[in-house]
Design goal:
Number of helices: 1
Number of strands: 3
Order of helices and strands: EEHE
Strand order of the largest sheet: 2-1-3
Helix content: 10-25%
Shape: globular
Structural class: alpha+beta
Radius of gyration: 12 Å
Strand content: 15-25%
Length: about 60
């Protein structure tokens, strides 16, 4: 497995807004994914959900 050089991951909303999930940072991609997995599972068939992505934090 190769490292991307990132020091962690952040969840961002596709619309750029911040909420209880967006802006959260995690040490691993898997931790961030688990949060989104729980969020989407709770909203099974809802059209009222927000869309998120997991982004690497820039090492600096």
């Amino acid at each position: 497995m190769t490292s991307s050089g990132a020091s962690g991951y952040r969840i961002s909303r596709d619309d750029g807004a911040t909420d209880g999930i967006a802006g959260s940072c995690f040490a691993t991609y898997e931790e961030a994914y688990a949060v989104l997995e729980r969020y989407y599972a709770d909203l099974c068939c809802s059209d009222d959900r927000e869309y998120y992505r997991i982004e690497p934090l820039d090492p600096a």
